[in-house]
Amino acid sequence: MKFSSKVEKCGLSPMRKFHPYAVAAKARGVNIYHLNIGQPDVQTPPAFFEAVRHFEQPVLAYAPSPGIPELIDAIQNYYDKLDMHFDKSEIYVTVGGSEALQIALQCILDDGDEILIPEPFYPNYNTMTRTCGASIRPIPTCPEEGYRYAEREKIESLINEHTRAIMVTNPGNPTGVVLSHEEMEMLVDVAQNHDLFLIGDEAYREFVYAGEPLQSMGQFADAAENVIVIDTVSKRFSACGARIGCLITRNRELMAHAMKYAQCRLSVPTLDQVASAALYDVGPEYFAAVREEYKRRRDTVMQKLQAIPGVICECPKGAFYVMAHLPVDDADTFQRWLLEEFEDNGDTELLPGSLVDRSHLEEANMKVLDSTKLRVEDGGDTGLAIGSLVEADELEEINQRIRVSGGSPAIARDLKPASVKRVLLGITRASLATDSFLSAASFQETNRVLTEAAIKGKIDPLIGLKENVILGKMIPAGTGMHRYKDIDIRENYGF
After folding, report:
1. Of 267, 275, 278, whose CA–CA distance to 61 is shortest?
2. If you classify domain 427-484 with CATH, what class do you get?
3. Where does the chain hold its CATH 3.40.640.10 domain(s)?
4. What is the torsional sign of CA 255, 258, 263, 269?
5. Peptide bond preceding 120: is omega within 30 degrees of 0, i.e. cis?
6. 59 has pLDDT over 70
7. How far apart are CA 424 and CA 390, in angstroms?
8. How far apart are alpha carbons 246 and 92 in whole angstroms?
9. Taking a C-beta distance cutoff of 8 angstroms, is the pair 101, 248 a contact?
10. In this structure, are residues 148 and 98 in contact, taking their beta carbons and an 8 Å threshold?
């Protein structure tokens, strides 16, 4: 069977192609932290769910292809508050920001066309572009310069007869770069001078941490023919599962073409639109609290990353990602190693990479899980050292005193058990994976085992068969077991 050359050129999503490895790791009992996808864990505003509960239409019908009027009005009012004014006909509701971007690219790209995008970029841009028969010409950046790219000479040197658009994520995904007004103005001018579309993916607009006012490509009304804004509720309101986004442009011809795709997929899910319209009534205090939480997490991650030798990492100014240059040769190989081979001793006393039997592992993990102590991750103003252990009750008392005095409390976490990978040992290594140093020393690595036991002052519990045979003691099996030693056996012929 023959398949489309366009789909043949599409690779697997870099964010999701390791899913099978993650599933296998979870099956082994490994705890996975998903850093591969921007899925917020902050609470979705309750207004979303309340709107669904109060939906009283007897039939869940198709919605209008451009979107329901209530949601379009809500989006329009949101931009009005930012002093960006769009006509209702300039706003199309889409199935997430992804569809908005896909429709825009399908409207402007032909086979052989190119689009300029700062690299590194959101990986799915590659797939979206290739399905249009086009390709990405990267605008190069580097970690040493904080992934900055907004230089006129750098961008114009990449424009050729195949270039159709410039696309930027602002704030940046995954770099966290935030464009200044002057940089955005420069990009608009370049787009106008070269007759290019300028696509602004602005999913993270509210998450800027230096106090700058919210910026948007939509504020350049004099570039009506060039500018396309992609927006979504996914990140802004922690509602990724709602799949509600929008395509915004003052280019009427582009909107007319976009309507062809909108009508082809009939409509965006009605209930999700109804609920998302309610989200736009959420006040600024919601965003203030979310920004503060993301900023706290950012600072914690940066502190840890910058303590690792060889890591190059600029503190992100926006969004909620950290782009770090790690001292590894190949990121894909590193990720597979993490999922298949990496072992975490958690907060146990086990050594990473050591061989332990199941009972020893369970004992070590239960000790950790039953502990009432917490591991300090951020000492705040308490004076507690990062990594130190503190009783939960004691930490609460310390934090309470700090809060009263106006200081920052410490942040701590529960202790973590060890994660392991099952291994099938050869006879030599299997003989060494025992708590008895006498048993281990009797096989092949006698000098090493006995020397290590002497240095560490090991005590042999003598619970196995081999170590007791070596010492000429009674075999701990059957009547040789301790529980039977004191049994008085008498003959009874009285039956």
Report:
1. 267
2. mainly alpha
3. 19-284
4. negative
5. yes
6. yes
7. 38
8. 5
9. no
10. no
DSSP state of 483: G
Tokens of residue 85, six digits: 């004014």
Strand duo 197-201 + 227-232: pairing = parallel
pLDDT in tens, 168-220: 999 999 999 999 999 999 999 999 999 999 999 999 999 999 877 788 999 99
pTM for the full model? 0.72
Coil vs helix vs strand at 375: strand
Strands, E assignment, 154-219:
163-169, 197-201
Q: What pLDDT is attached to residue 386?
A: 78
Report the sign of the C-alpha dihedral through residues 355, 360, 364, 370, in that order.
positive
- What's the mean per-residue pLDDT of the chain? 87
CATH 1.10.150.390 location in the chain: 427-484
Would you state the pLDDT for residue 468?
Answer: 80
Q: Which of 426, 461, 465, 476 is nearest to 442 (CA)?
A: 465
What single-letter DSSP state applies at residue 310? Answer: T
Task: Look at phi and psi of residue 472 and say left if phi exceeds 0, alpha if psi is from -120 to 50, else beta.
Answer: left
Residues 255, 222 contacting (CB under 8 angstroms): no
Tens digits of residue pLDDT in 415-446? 888 776 665 555 555 555 677 877 777 766 77
Q: Which CATH architecture has domain 19-284?
A: 3-Layer(aba) Sandwich (3.40)
- 287's CB contacts (< 8 A; 6+ apart) are 206, 236
Q: Let me know: does 271 contact 60? Beta carbons within 8 Å.
A: yes
**Which residues partner with 97 through β-bridges?**
none
Give per-residue pLDDT as tens, 362-407. 777 778 777 888 888 888 888 887 778 888 889 888 988 888 888 8
DSSP string, 207-250: -BSS-PPP--GGG-GGGTTTEEEEEESTTTTT-GGG-EEEEE-S
Highest-pLDDT range among 101-105, 120-124, 335-339 = 101-105
Q: What pLDDT was estimated at residue 355?
A: 62
